[in-house]
Amino acid sequence: MSNNHNTSHGSTDDTLILIGVLCVGIPLLVFGGWKIGKVAIITITRNVYGLIELPFYYLQLFIQKITGSNAGYLDFTTNAITKLCYPDPNHAMNPLMHCTANLKVVPFSFYSENCIFPTILIGALLVGWIWYKHAINLKYLPDTRYVQEHDLESLIGELGSYQPHLRYIQRFIQSNYATDKGFYRLLLSPREFIKIHNLVYGFRKYEIENAEDFDDFKGSNSPKDDAYPLLDQSKFEKLMMHQLGQMLDKPSNLSDGEIILYALFLPMACATDERMSDKEFKKIKAQKDMLLHYFWDKAIEHLTSEKAFINPKNYEPREFKYFERKRLQKIVERYWNHPVAKEVFSKHAYVRTALIALIYKTRTLGVLAPCELRWLRNYDRTLWALVQNVGRPSVYVEQLAAFSHYTSEAYYHRRKISPDFSYGWNGLLESLKQYRYADPHVYLPAPPKANEITVN
């Protein structure tokens, strides 16, 4: 505490010394300079200020000649010429070259009084110039440029040149489309998923079957429903097979959407290899940034080139027409046989389960947020759900299959050829018990119409 006191006391002393030096030193410097170089100072000042006053001096001579008066009201504007120079009357038209004043006897007060007008004029010009430059800088300084009111649309337009996803949003405005139906709806909840895919064949009364169910029932603020849906497991498995996709073979067998994701995540996963050179590591990091910008550019190009691309009623995945598959496939092939890639592929049998493992591995180098690939949502909802699911405590059901099988492979630490959807099945059933079903009939398949009933 005493040290802090001494420090603040010393700082105060330094400030007082500095003020004293300035108050004494500046007047001494001015006085000494005037005594030593008075003639030179007056000569330079007289010539510079005299050039400024010349137009007013000639104006005064003109008025004197026209009116016959001395035009004394302009004396204030010509003092540097008439008093500090005191030109020879015989050379009135060239006054500064014929000065007769004895500068050695000019006192400081007389000198300062006769320099007021040019000083004011120069000061006014400087203030005007500073104000002009300040007004220009207000247009370009970030601290002032963005201090303005924005609505959402104008803010997106302002920042669109810096953020590629905002350029995309400028052309595809999500709020113009329904979020509860159509291709651009939000990712489905479990209850919406079973309804859309007609997985429900009946309802069962909820019963406490074990101690865990009893604890859930007892501790819940909102009691369970009287019934929960029963799902058609064969339908569920067919749907999961479609979500799971194909087995892992070679880069040429990957779909266009999968090759895009592999081109991004496979090299980054390989970059976790500690034996990789710094040069190669930096190359992969730069390639990642390049690909992210490339994907946004191609997505924007597709969006703006085809009016039919935006179609909420078309539920099918879109084609990746504008993405150069050959270029992306070369990147994948370059790292396909890397030791890190081989290790991942040895533990995962399917393209999408291996992709999940690659994304997890990539994120050990830092966060690669799903929003970097938000454009993918408008192409393939299943792949978008896969990217969104990685790292979440619960997964979206639109890509439940790959995560169910991935969990099984991760548990057994080996590739599994036979699809395992048990984790997804049990998780879906459990999550469905958390909902209320006020109108159970809306989840059941519609009964056949009279003219559709056939008799065997």
UniProtKB/TrEMBL annotation:
Source species, domain of life: Bacteria
Domain DotM C-terminal cytoplasmic span(s) in chain numbering: 237-421
InterPro entries associated with the record: DotM_C
Transmembrane parts of this sequence: 15-34, 114-132
Keywords: Membrane, Plasmid, Transmembrane, Transmembrane helix
UniProt name for this protein: DotM C-terminal cytoplasmic domain-containing protein
